[in-house]
TrEMBL record:
InterPro entries: Lipoprotein_repeat. This is Lipoprotein with Yx(FWY)xxD motif. It comes from Luteimonas endophytica. Keywords: Signal. Pfam families: Lipoprotein_15 (PF03640). It comes from the Bacteria. Residues 31-52 are annotated as: Disordered. The keyword Signal applies.
């Protein structure tokens, strides 16, 4: 038997442990230097999932949570703090097609109503039926969207964007669009 053959599994185990320790150290460094609103340990360029939510308590269903930002002017955000937008003249949701939804993911749910967070008027929160049988979350009758380019909580790069689908705005906690800056 070659002297190094018997130690190969041990070397692999030590290499795996050293790699794991290095990754943990990198994550701890990243968490210490994260800016407010960043998601430590996650790629900041990765868009948020379409449906951040909290458990509703029944059968694993989830309820999207809509809440108020802690910034001025107050606007709608999801449970993870990502800004929510409306597309002007889009009350039925038809102006934002599949290509649009790649840049502006809709806030959706299945078979459960959204939950109002702090600062939200429950009577303004609702849903409309989508063609794919999901429910599109609305506020004051306007379908809600995220902006994929926002890259996380606290970002509002979509406010005032005008594109081929129309004009996008943050949504006020009182219902109408937040005025353009």
């Amino acid at each position: 038997m070659h002297p190094s053959t018997g130690s190969t599994p041990l070397r692999l185990l030590l290499l795996a442990l050293a790699t794991a320790a290095a990754l943990v150290a990198c994550q701890e460094d990243r968490a210490d230097t994260a800016a407010p609103g960043e998601r430590p340990g996650l790629d900041p360029d990765t868009p948020m999932p379409t449906n951040p939510a909290v458990a509703a308590g029944q059968g694993g269903d989830v309820r999207p949570v809509v809440t108020a930002s802690d910034t001025t002017p107050a606007h709608l955000v999801d449970a993870s703090g990502q800004a929510l937008y409306m597309l002007h003249d889009n009350a039925d949701g038809s102006r934002c097609d599949t290509r649009c939804e790649g840049a502006w993911p809709p806030v959706t749910t299945r078979d459960v109503q959204p939950a109002p967070g702090e600062g939200i008027q429950n009577d303004l929160l609702g849903t409309i039926q989508r063609q794919d049988s999901t429910l599109h979350v609305t506020y004051d009758g306007q379908p809600l969207y995220r902006y994929a380019a926002d890259a996380g909580a606290g970002r509002t790069a979509g406010h005032g964007v005008e594109d081929q689908w129309g004009e996008w705005s943050l949504v006020s906690v009182h219902g109408p669009a937040v005025p353009q800056r």
